[in-house]
């Protein structure tokens, strides 16, 4: 049997202007990431957004997202 990795791409850098259904708040990104992990995705690919604004490169926003998905995933174990 071949092993595969499932990657879930939650959003893109183009904001809701071009992709209307993307999660664009920290809370929505965490919720979508957790749902993908529960559906057996092994890689969660996301761009950071904070409060529905433009994409951000702020490491603290990324940290909140990563920690939020990680905490929720650990609770499941």
**Number of E-state strands:** 2
Quickly count the helices.
3
What sort of overall outline do the alpha carbons produce when their principal axes are compared? globular
Strand fraction: 5-15%
Instruction: Find the structural class using helix and strand composition.
Output: mainly alpha
Ordered list of secondary-structure elements with their pairings:
Elements: E1 7-9, H1 15-18, H2 26-38, E2 43-45, H3 59-76
Parallel strand pairs: 1-2
How would you summarize what this structure contains?
With 77 residues, this protein is mainly alpha-helical. It has helices at 15-18, 26-38, 59-76; strands spanning 7-9, 43-45. The chain is globular.
Describe the structure.
The chain is mainly α and 77 residues long. The chain has one domain. The chain is 45% helix and 8% strand. The chain has a two-stranded parallel ribbon.
